[in-house]
Amino acid sequence: MAHISSNDPFLGDERADCYFCDAPAHAYWHREFNFCVCSECATNTLPLLIADAVTANNPKGTLDAAMEAISKNFYRGAAIALQRSNDSLRKAADQQKSAAVFDLET
How many domains does the structure of the chain reveal? Predict the structure, then answer.
């Protein structure tokens, strides 16, 4: 799981398109291929696909358990993504501070 940024180790500088709608993607999952998705499809299309998958073998059963697991994993994923974003911002700020110190000393 990752946000898409320039110089990505798996995507490089290529523009990634959403698997569902071909709009510019905002995130991807790297496996044997890169599964890219935009925020619109992540919100409106993926939940429909997940519901189909969850109910395929047990249409009357495990919806509550599935929703609980989905919710838990969503918030876990959001926490990981936000931490990764904060780490990137902190690293960029530290690099700017280092560059400013270097400029003052020369």
Answer: 2
Do 37 and 68 sit in the same domain of this protein?
A: no
CB 38, CB 26: distance < 8 Å: yes
- Give the C-alpha separation, 70 to 53, whole Å: 12
What band does 57 get if pLDDT is binned at 50, 70 and 90? confident
Q: Are 64 and 92 part of one and the same domain?
A: yes
Q: Rounded to whole angstroms, how far apart are CA atoms 22 and 43?
A: 15
37/65 same-domain check: no
Domain assignment present for 53: no
Amino acid code (one letter) for 30: H
Give just the sign of the alpha carbon dihedral 22, 38, 44, 53: positive
- The answer to whether 69 and 62 are in contact (CB under 8 A) is no
Residue 77's contacts (CB-CB under 8 Å, 6 or more residues apart) are: 1
Please tell me the pTM assigned to this model: 0.64
Main-chain dihedrals φ then ψ at residue 8, nearest 5 degrees: -65, 140
